[in-house]
Amino acid sequence: MTSLADSALKNTKFSILELAPVREDQTVEFSLKHTLELAQHAERLGFDRLWLAEHHNMDGIASSATAVLLGYILANTHSIKVGSGGIMLPNHAPLVVAEQFGTLATLYPNRIELGLGRAPGTDPLTMRALRRGRQETEDQFPQDVLEILSYFADAHPNQRIKATPGQGTHVPVWLLGSSLFSAQLAAKLGLPYSFASHFAPRMLGQAIQLYRENFQPSEYLDQPFVSMGVPTVVAQTDEEAEYLATSVYLRIQALLTGQSLKLKPPVESMEGRWSVSEKMAVQNFLAMAQIGSAETVKNGLNKLLEQYQVDEFIFTCDIYDTAKRLENFSLLMDLKK
After folding, report:
1. What is the pTM of this model?
2. What 8-state DSSP symbol labels residue 19?
3. What is the pLDDT of residues 188-228, one digit of tens each?
């Protein structure tokens, strides 16, 4: 007999957040082609959506030209929803974002989604290079979101600036966040909300509560919809998963210490490779991570569902071996059977 927990897991949407990780022994071209391979694999498995994250000036992440890469994936898949998780709005003029995603929506109707983030997703020097003197700030985020929504809506008779393509495409817009700000804005605007608990889990519970308690039904959504990021390393055994996860630990350690983010092969042990404080920082980063056999991860996901009652898990995975990485997502989807 199916337990209540298993039933809840079956009814929870499973999606993927992809950063096009670059392996230290491979080219960026290899990473981009593997991202397509993953998207096609996810489509066959029945994942609901695959999102790409915008980051800049990071040698281990190849999804910087997010809209361009989305076009490549859309052209070579058939049904899976794809989108941004997210476009970092302070880096862009809202009209340009609307035109890019409006173009994708026109070419691939009902398949594109726009997730918007409030942070720049890079360092201050790169941020200035991206903006080229524009004065966008995170504080302007609400106004920029409203502007984008207006470009996707049906045009008003006296509307002077229109997104072409874009106007009238009604591209679904999500708000992303790792703090309380975007949760509050998503609730006010009646938009779906995705919390970045795959790297910043500390305020997850607070943000979800704030979003649900303040949600106002809208033309976009009649009730709250919450997605949470979950790092995963799923393998045949707990021991294999823990071994594969050392690539994840090394990558986060590199992020925290300003080193290269290229994926490194797994190691037998992390002992002697990180300090006590680095180990603690990595563990905090991965507080929501599910690492282990299918059974171990199933139990972990059920506990997350019991605690947070989210509508969707959006999974990340930084396994070094591409075959094992694809297997990670196969094993995840098997949990819904």
Report:
1. 0.95
2. -
3. 999 999 999 999 999 999 999 999 999 999 999 999 999 99
